[in-house]
Amino acid sequence: MLVTFTTKAYADITMFGDDALSMLKMMGHSAAVPGAIREEDVAQALSRLKAAIESGNSSPPVADKNAEEPVVSTAHRALPLINLLSAAVKEKCYVTWK
Questions:
Q1: Most buried residue, 16, 32, 50, 55, by most Cβ within 10 Å?
Q2: What is the mean pLDDT of residues 6-31?
Q3: Rounded CA separation 43/93 (Å)
Q4: Of 23, 16, 22, nearest to 83 (Cα)?
């Protein structure tokens, strides 16, 4: 499953479902897809996501010892979503995902 985050203030961000649902929970939202964050609640969601990542409360990436791909941290995976949320705060826009 893929989840796409959308706002008028930024390009769409598409994430793998597990990563997106984990970040939604870090933002204080349910894992329901589709969903939305009201304009006045985006700043709080951004703050919660950043706090969860900084405190290490996000689930660590799982390394596959047989894979040749490098492990990508939650902080790096969250960066596009953080940028989207920041733009939405700046432009006072809501955010949706589907």
A1: 50
A2: 94
A3: 10
A4: 23
Cα separation, 78 vs 70, whole angstroms: 16
Give the Cα separation of 92 and 78 in Å (integer).
20
Q: If you average pLDDT over every residue of the chain, what do you get?
A: 89
Say if residues 43 and 94 touch (Cβ distance below 8 Å).
Answer: no
Residue tagged 């700046």 (tokens):
90
What average pLDDT does range 51-64 have in this prediction?
69
Give the C-alpha distances (Å, rounded to integers) separating 48 from 28, 29, 52, 53, 66: 7, 10, 6, 9, 34
| Residues above pLDDT 70, as percent of the chain | 89
pTM value?
A: 0.84
For 89, what's the count of Cα atoms within 13 Å in the CB-facing half-sphere? 13
Query: Is the pLDDT score of 60 beyond 60?
Result: no
CA dihedral of residues 13, 18, 21, 26 (deg, nearest 10): -100
DSSP 33: S
